[in-house]
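Structure tokens please, single chain.
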Amino acid sequence: MSEELERIAAIEDPFVLLRVATERLQAAQAEVTELSRLRRRVIQDLHAKGMSYAQIAEKAGLSRGRIHQIRHTGPAPEGAFLGSGKVTIVTPLRQDTAKARAVVALDDLTAGKRLEDLARTFGLTVEYEHVPVDGRIDLNRPGLIVICGPRMSQDMRELYEQDPVLRWEKADDSPWMLRDTHTGKVFRSGIDSDSPRPYDVAYLGRLPRPDGEGTVTAIAGVHTQGSLGVVHLLATEIGTLWGQVGTRRFSTVVGVEYDQDTHEPLRVELLTPLYRHEEA
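Here you go.
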């Protein structure tokens, strides 16, 4: 019996014992999930470098059958693109002036739910929060995935300013747009053009927390349809994204063609490279 288990077992108050044991069990289950993900990733990496499963088994002191079992069971390594253990998905509240209350846009609600479903397929625990109407959010926490642009939150606007390549820009009399400072190219939403069309652009990136102790995954369309498109990209291409950037800091601009009536993404594409910030 470990010292931690002995400590918990020695708690005399049954209600405290029940609470502490439950908390410890939840933490242990999350740790098992992440160890399983790490183990599977190591096997995939070694195999990708040219080692056979038999060679991996021999070097690790495990049977070949066990290596194959590990390779095909447990949470997929690419789930680490979203986070580890627990992630918190944050969507913005908007002021409904007609009803004098705060509401969540339907597209943001849909994007958050689909992102939750994706995270759960990778064995991640998911919690929900909202950016309040005043835009204030504590970004110095692990596992944050924030679906919110610079217009809705000053805290997020300052976070986006940490990007060394991509810039959110807005003139006083114009809509928001994204600029690639490496190429000078500007990306605008089709909704805001002189001849409006069902097309939006969006930001996807992993940026440093204000306290420098971790990162925040940030998603934001110029309009809500763009955010929905980014989540579609994650659901369909997360393995490719993970293979290119892993858990490093990065950013990219996403183009989203969508159905005008339902806002469902019809075609999603990267409009810039996946910029790795340590190389920018």
